[in-house]
Write a structure and sequence with these properties.
Blueprint (H helix, E strand, L loop, with lengths): L1 H26 L2 H8 L4 E8 L10 E4 L4 E4 L5 E6 L5 E5 L6 E4 H6 L2 E3 L12 E4 L2 E4 L7 E5 H4 L7 H4 L7 E5 L21 E5 L2 E2 L1 E4 L2 E2 L12 E7 L2 H5 L9 E6 L6 E14 L9 H14 L9 H7 L14 H5 L3 E14 L3 E12 L10 E14 L4 E17 L19 H10 L8 E3 L8 E4 L7 H7 L1 E19 L7 E20 L3 E4 L15 E4 L8 E23 L2 E16 L6 E14 L3 E12 L8 E12 L16 E7 L27
Parallel strand pairs: 1-7, 14-17, 24-27
Antiparallel strand pairs: 1-4, 2-3, 2-5, 5-6, 8-9, 10-16, 11-12, 12-13, 14-15, 16-17, 18-19, 19-20, 20-21, 21-22, 22-25, 23-24, 25-26, 26-29, 27-28, 29-30, 30-31, 31-32, 32-33, 33-34
Helix pairs in contact: 7-8
Length: 702
């Protein structure tokens, strides 16, 4: 009944959020539509040419705020039905400078010329970096950028898997195929480990989401929320953040609305995920043969399995008391699970306000053949608003909320439950695979006694192998886990043109939080020790030793909880100005952050002052430098702060006169960077201190 209620909440919650997203977008221009009805329609023919005056087919044309999307025909023309002389037209094509014109301008001059931009200098070539945005052409280091379209092709609820194969030099390791994500992966507590790792040049990458350092497991994202992903590997851009980014950055920007467009996306996907590989565990008969071979090669002649034993193991009976052969893979693991993804998003805006809103659902089944029903479900909701207060002040207000639900059998038992959680594993599949790998298929039968009159079966273990994978999965209880995340941040951008043309100030504040609670029953099975090779059926199971009694929980308990809180703020002063053939981009930033997590003795604190400057001549020769003076709480006392100077140079050789004869070469850049940066990965605070512990034992020595 509880599972049914959760499904109902998820489905109707998704419908409600979808309506909330669609209605504001539908009403944004209600007044404008009423005005339009009073005016007569007119048809305007628009002709678009390139810089040579030639007809330009396939140019994108958007009328108004996205009510009409079309493109020019083979002659470079398009007919537009205009309902108001206040309408405007956006004209764009990849590699060309976009133009936005009023209808009145088209009436007098119905021909528009698009001018080709320099390579990697259009608005589509913007690269989002910590505290600034640069053109791809001006980069002096190796920063790869791709949009969310590539991520949306991969059917997974873990965005890290979708990054596989998208960027040269980034390695994605999936160590565990369990559904969903766990916010505690990197802490390593309760048997958890990183499910999917991202590495570049042999080091683990950190994540920055909308200018805030945060692990992707603490704010799981859907592809539909993401605008772009930048992979930062070289030292100049890494020093823009500080010591925590020394290994590299996965810099994620979520979607924002754009002027003069209106988009509504509805997406529904369903499919099946398949396990493509598992360890190749041997059968009972093969285990016996290989065991004999190993002993023979080592000169051991005792304890060998006879041909009769091997023939008995070949029957593959998991319940045989003398010759059990358990195929744990077939019993416990299924190779497929269902996958569902549904989302609705809308975006757009005017000169005064731009909006982007998203609501998405992700759901996955489980890969267990036995035990309680398992699965993972997640709802993400996000809203990003850009509001122009006046000619000098713009405000961004961004909201995020997430709800994740996980149902699963426990795997492992402990009597320690309550506030703070138990010692059982955070995730089940890795522990199950470890036990299957370490337990011989002939070590013991699944059941010692499975009489229907028993309340619960008695499970087999041995003196050498003290856990039964079937019993662990079926009789260790179950749990319902809920994770709630939320965040809000605001950015205030002051245009200070009246003081100095090109000068802007940005003030940013952020708060994110996550809380997880796991409620369930911690139970255990009755276990007996058995040695199948010496067990005498005539004596029966009364000759066996009971290892422990079963435990049945009478009520639900808090099996585990976890939380984190993230505070961040920065003040950024930027100067962006072009002087003839020269271009200058300079910033001064002060930032601070504090992250509180379970498992850490105190918050992870960061503080930094950052100066950066870039000069480009003719968009061909570029020099960039960064000076970062930052500190973290993870470094030794007296050495918390360090200076990180870096510099980079780039030269677009292909635009030199001596290269223009090489028609096969369209773009070639030489670049290099140099500098030093302190590294602090925040594995744990105070690792630089000596640690002592009390032991009540005597150790003899010289």
């Amino acid at each position: 009944m509880k599972l049914l209620n959760k499904e109902i909440y998820l489905r109707y919650g998704l419908i409600l959020f979808a309506l909330l997203l669609i209605l504001p977008a539908a009403n944004l221009n209600a007044q404008k539509r009423a005005e339009v009805k009073k005016q007569k329609s007119a048809v305007v023919t628009l002709k678009v040419t390139n810089e040579k005056g030639e007809a330009f087919p396939g140019v994108g044309i958007i009328l108004g705020e996205g009510l009409v999307h079309t493109e020019t025909d083979a002659t470079g023309t398009v007919n537009l039905t205009i309902h108001s002389d206040k309408e405007f037209v956006t004209i764009s094509s990849p590699g060309y400078e976009s133009q936005v014109l009023l209808v009145t301008e088209l009436t007098s001059t119905p021909s528009v010329k698009l001018v080709k931009s320099k390579m990697f200098m259009t608005t589509d070539d913007n690269v989002n970096l910590p505290y600034l945005t640069m053109k791809k052409r001006h980069l002096t280091g190796s920063t790869s950028v791709f949009d969310a379209i590539a991520l949306d092709r991969y059917p997974t609820n873990d965005i890290r898997n979708a990054l596989t194969g998208l960027v040269t030099g980034m390695e994605v390791y999936e160590r565990d195929g369990s559904p969903g994500v766990s916010a505690e992966e990197k802490l390593g507590a309760y048997g958890s480990s990183e499910k999917v790792g991202l590495y570049s040049r042999g080091t683990s990458l950190m994540y920055i989401i909308d200018d805030v350092r945060m692990d992707i497991t603490e704010m799981p994202l859907d592809p539909g929320e993401i605008e772009s992903v930048s992979l930062v590997r070289d030292i100049v851009v890494k020093s823009m953040y500080g010591p925590a980014a020394a290994n590299g950055i996965v810099f994620i920007k979520t979607k924002r609305g754009r002027k003069n467009e209106r988009l509504l996306n509805v997406n529904l996907e369903q499919g099946v995920s398949t396990i493509d590989r598992l360890p190749e565990w041997v059968s009972g008969a093969d285990y016996a043969r290989l065991n004999n071979l190993a002993k023979t090669n080592s000169g051991i002649t005792t304890g060998l399995y006879s041909d009769a034993d091997i023939d008995a193991y070949a029957l593959n009976d998991p319940y045989d008391m003398n010759h059990p052969s358990v195929n744990y893979q077939d019993m416990l693991i299924k190779k497929t699970r269902g996958f569902t993804r549904a989302n609705v998003s809308t975006s757009g805006g005017t000169e005064a306000m731009q909006y982007s809103a998203y609501i998405g659902y992700n759901g996955e089944g489980d890969n267990f053949n036995m035990g309680s029903t398992a699965g993972y479900k997640r709802i993400n909701a996000r809203s990003n608003l850009d509001i122009r207060i006046n000619d000098f002040l713009k405000v961004q207000v961004n909201f995020f909320a997430g709800l994740s639900l996980r149902d699963s059998p426990n795997y492992g038992y402990t009597s320690t439950v309550g506030e703070g959680g138990s010692q059982m594993g955070i995730v089940e599949m890795p522990n199950l695979l470890t036990d299957i790998t370490n337990t011989p298929p002939i070590a013991f039968p699944v059941y010692i006694n499975n009489d229907p009159s028993l309340k619960s079966p008695w499970y087999g273990i041995s003196s050498s192998y003290g856990t039964n994978p079937v019993g662990n999965l079926v009789k260790n209880g179950y749990y319902n886990e809920s994770g709630r995340s939320g965040g809000i941040n605001s950015l205030f951008e002051w245009n200070m043109e009246n003081i100095l043309p090109g000068l802007k100030s940005r003030t940013f504040v952020d708060f994110n939080t996550f809380y997880l609670l796991r409620i369930g029953k911690a139970e255990n099975y009755t276990a007996y020790r058995i040695d199948p090779r010496t067990y005498d059926p005539a004596l029966g199971i009364t000759s066996l030793t009971k290892a422990w009694d079963g435990v049945d929980a009478t009520s639900y308990s808090n099996l585990h909880d976890f939380y984190f809180q993230n505070y961040a703020a920065y003040e950024n002063l930027s100067y962006d100005k072009k002087f003839g053939s020269g271009y200058v981009l300079a910033t001064a930033t002060y930032r601070l952050s504090s992250i509180k997590r379970n498992g850490f003795e105190e918050p992870q604190r960061e503080q930094a002052g950052i100066l950066s400057a870039l000069y480009s001549y003719n968009d061909k020769y570029t020099i960039q430098g960064v000076l970062n003076y930052g500190g973290t709480s993870g470094l030794p006392a007296g050495k918390e702060y360090s200076l990180s100077p870096t510099i980079g140079l780039s030269w677009i050789v292909s635009e030199e006169n001596f290269m223009k004869s090489l028609t096969f070469l369209s773009y070639m850049k030489l670049r290099g960077e140099f500098g030093s940066i302190t590294s602090d990965e925040f594995r744990s605070p105070f690792l630089y201190r000596d640690r002592w512990e009390w032991r009540s034992e005597f150790i003899a020595g010289y």
